[in-house]
Design brief:
Strand order of the largest sheet: 6-7-8-3-9-10
Helix content: 55-70%
CATH architecture of one domain: Up-down Bundle
CATH class of one domain: Mainly Alpha
CATH superfamily of one domain: ABC transporter type 1, transmembrane domain
Number of strands: 10
Distance between the termini: 60 Å
Number of helices: 23
Low-confidence stretches: 600-607
CATH topology of one domain: ABC transporter transmembrane region fold
Length: 612
Amino acid sequence: MSVYGRLYPFVRPHGWRMAGAIVTNIFAAVLDAFSLALLIPFLNTLFEQAPIGLGGGGLTRLLRSTVGVMLDPADKMGSLRNVILIVIALMVTKNLLLWLAGQLGASLQEYVTRDLRTAVYNHIAHLPLGYFQRTKTGQILSRVITDTAETRLILTQLVTSSLQNAALIVSYIVFLFLISWKMTLMALLIVPVLGFVLTPILQKLRKGNRKKVNQHGEMTSVVQETVSGIRLVKSFGAEQVEEERFAVASNRYANLNVRLTRISNLAAPITEIIGVSIATSLLWLGARQVLVNHSMSGADLIAFLLYALRMLQPLKQLSQMPTTAQASLASAERLFEVLDTPSEPQTDEGTRTDAAFEREIRFEHVGFSYGDAPVLTDISFKAAKGEVIALVGASGAGKSTLVDLIPRFYDVNSGAILVDGIDTREFKLPALRALTGIVSQDTVLFNDTVRNNIAYGTGLAYTDEQVEAAARAANAHAFIAELPEGYATILGERGTRLSGGQRQRLAIARALLRDPPILILDEATSALDTESERLVQEAVDRLLRGRTVFVIAHRLSTIVNADQILVLERGEIIERGTHAELLAARGAYHRLYTLQFGSMSTVSHPMVSSAV
C-alpha cells in the first residue's frame, strides 16, 4: 500500500474538513477563471465592438447566458462599469472561499499530524524491550518529533497548495477548451513532457531523503548522548572528542542537504523552460488564427494567452509538489516502519487475565539468546514464596537477562518459567507484570510531582495518605516535607533536584505502594554515602518482608543471608547454595568473595538480614 493509502485512516475521521477544503477550493478556482473570461467583453467594448460576439463558441454562449443581460452595446461605459463590478464581486467571493479553505486545510493537517504523532508514540510505548536496546534514543526522538512534523507537509501540499493549484489548472483548461480546443491540446503537451523529465529526479530525491532523515537521527543521538553523559564528558576532558563526533554527523547531514537541494532545484527551471517554449508556440499559432484564418478574435487570443500564462504558475507549483514531498514521504515511510514493528500486545499470546502468586516460581531448563549468541543456557531453579534469591557473577554473565525473563520483557527461547505451575506465557502481560516490582540501581524519576512519581502508573488508585505511608516506610517523608511544595514539588528531568539516596528512597516508596509479591532488586545501596546507605538499607529491609526477591548482587556482603545464591558464568549456573555452603565449597563464589574482601571477615551490613 502506498504512503497516501497508509495515511488515509488518519485523514478519515476529519473527512468533513477535507471535503470542505476541496469544495471551497473548486468554487474559488471556478470564480477565478470566470473573472478572467470577463476580459473578453471588456476588451471588445473598449475597442468599440459588441461586448459579446455573435458567434456560437462555448465561451461566448457561457458569457451571454450569465452576464449578457448586463452588457448593452449602446451603453459602452455602463457595460464597462458592470464588468468591473462583477469582477470585484467575484474576487471578494473567491478570496472568502480561499480563506475558508485555508482554515479547513490548516485544521486538517494539525489534527491529522496530532493523531499520527500520538499513534506512533503509543505504539513505541508498547514495543518490546529489545527494540529500545537496538535503536538509538536520538532515532526514536527523531521519529516521534521530526518525522511527524515532516509528514505533515504531505497534507500541507495536498490540501492547501496542490488542491488549490489543481483546481485552478482544471478550471483554466475548461475555459481554454471553450476558446480553442486545438490550441488547448497543444498546451497540454507540457504534462507528459514534464512527467518524463522529472521522474528520475523524484526517484533520486526519495532515496536521498531517506538517508537525510536517518542522518538527522544520528546527529540527534550524538546530542542526546552528550547531554545525558555531560558529567562523564567533563570529568574526562572529552569536550573536544564530542565536538568532533558532532561535527562529523553535522557535516554529513549538511552535505546530504546540499546534494538534495542541488537536485530539487532542477525541477523549477526545467518546468519553466518547457512551459515558456509551449507558450511562445501558442502565441505564434494564435496570431495566425487571428490575422490569417480569422477564426479567432483578438480579445479571444488575449484571453487564451492570459489563461495559459496564468496556468504556468500553479502548474509550476504543482510540478514541484512531488519534489518537495519526497522528504515528507521518506519521513512517513520511517513512521510506518515503526508502526509495522510488532508491539507486545500484538505478539502476546497469553490468555489468562488474572495472575496470582501463592507458592513458587520455577525455572525449568530455560534458554535464551539475542540472535545467534546464547545468553542463558539450561537455567533451572526454584524460588519459594518469601525466599530471597541472589544472582552473582561477572558483568555479562546473564544476571539482568535472567530477571528480565520473569516479567517477560523477553520470552524464553527454550524451557519455561512457571508461576505456581503455570507457564508465564499463558498470562496476559499486564496481569503478569502486576505481580512484579523493580527497584534498580539506576533510579528513573519523571519530570512530575513527588506524589505522581511515587504513585507512577496508578493514577488515582491510591490516596494521599497511602502515598505518604509508603514514603514514610521508605524513609523518604522527611526530605519530601522539606521540599518547597512537599509532595506537589516538581522534581525536574530525571529527578535531578534530588541526591542519589533520595531518588533510591522514592523508588522504594513506589514499590512499597504497589506492594508486589515478586520483587526484582538491582542492589539499591551501591555508590551511596554512609548516611544515605543506612536510610536506604532500612527502607530495603521493610520492602523485602514477605516477598519473593531476586537480588542482582554487586557487593557480596549484602547477600550473606540470602536463602539461595546462584553463581552465573557465561549464562550458566555453575554454583548454587547459601553463603556458608558456597564459601565452604571454595569454588567460584569463594574466589569472588576473596577478591572483594581479602578474608573471611564478618559482614557488617547484610542487606537481606531482616528479611530472612
